[in-house]
Amino acid sequence: MEVDQTAGFEINPRRGLVVWVYSLKQLKNLKRYGFVYYVSRKMKYVYLYLDEERYEENLAKIQKLHFVRSVEPSYRPDVEMNFADKIGTKAAYQEVDEGFEVEELSTRIRLAENV
């Protein structure tokens, strides 16, 4: 049996969502909105992954549920994760000049037995 290599697997963009709940009895209701990745029974929150294309409408529906305390969206897709331009360059170490000078001091290491 041969597998068709041309048929590709599409990756759907997703976004994380932390849903704080009063009770975990209604966990099955949250499963219909997205993929339940983690459930904290002690702290009573659920981490969901929602599809990016229907994120806003599902977020509004989840916030209206009676057993939901609060909802926190994940900001990871909004953060620039490409640090290649910054690593190893002077731009990574530059800060806003506030009039302070940084001077490097030589530090002498002493062992505890010599103190």
UniProtKB/TrEMBL annotation:
Keywords: Cytoplasm. GO terms for cellular component: cytoplasm. Its main location: cytoplasm. It comes from the Bacteria. It is found in: Cytoplasm. Coiled coil: none annotated. The keyword NADP does not apply. Belongs to the UPF0298 family. This is UPF0298 protein UAS_00858. It comes from Enterococcus asini ATCC 700915.
